[in-house]
């Protein structure tokens, strides 16, 4: 079972207390954007095998959104952090690098 710690209230919650919100760190495009940018925002996702960054909501707790870094193959959780963060914290990246040598953070479009 997937267990994530809410970075706001500190509760270690299982996935039944949480609501998934899709891929994290997307560039959101709205009114005034090009059709191609808006199409990419709606439909283009990474869906990697391995390290992945996701949005989660502590639905049956504090109700706040947060990001989680985890491995989609092993379900290992590298860390959670506030949703307002534009890129993963250095300590989360260091933990990922220790578990998956050669991994590098890349900017999402």
From TrEMBL:
<dbReference type="GO" id="GO:0046653">
    <property type="term" value="P:tetrahydrofolate metabolic process"/>
</dbReference>
<protein>
    <submittedName>
        <fullName>Sarcosine oxidase subunit delta</fullName>
    </submittedName>
</protein>
<dbReference type="InterPro" id="IPR006279">
    <property type="entry name" value="SoxD"/>
</dbReference>
<dbReference type="GO" id="GO:0008115">
    <property type="term" value="F:sarcosine oxidase activity"/>
</dbReference>
<dbReference type="Pfam" id="PF04267">
    <property type="entry name" value="SoxD"/>
</dbReference>
<dbReference type="InterPro" id="IPR038561">
    <property type="entry name" value="SoxD_sf"/>
</dbReference>
């Amino acid at each position: 079972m997937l267990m994530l710690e809410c970075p706001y209230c500190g509760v270690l919650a299982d996935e039944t207390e949480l609501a998934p919100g899709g891929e994290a760190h997307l560039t959101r495009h709205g009114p005034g954007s090009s059709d191609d940018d808006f199409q990419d925002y709606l439909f283009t996702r990474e869906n990697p095998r391995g390290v992945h960054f996701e949005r989660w909501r502590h639905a049956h707790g504090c109700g706040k959104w947060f990001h989680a870094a985890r491995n989609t193959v092993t379900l290992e959780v590298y860390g959670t952090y506030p949703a307002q963060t534009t890129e993963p914290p250095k300590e989360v990246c260091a933990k990922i690098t220790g578990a998956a040598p050669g991994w590098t953070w890349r900017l999402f479009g």
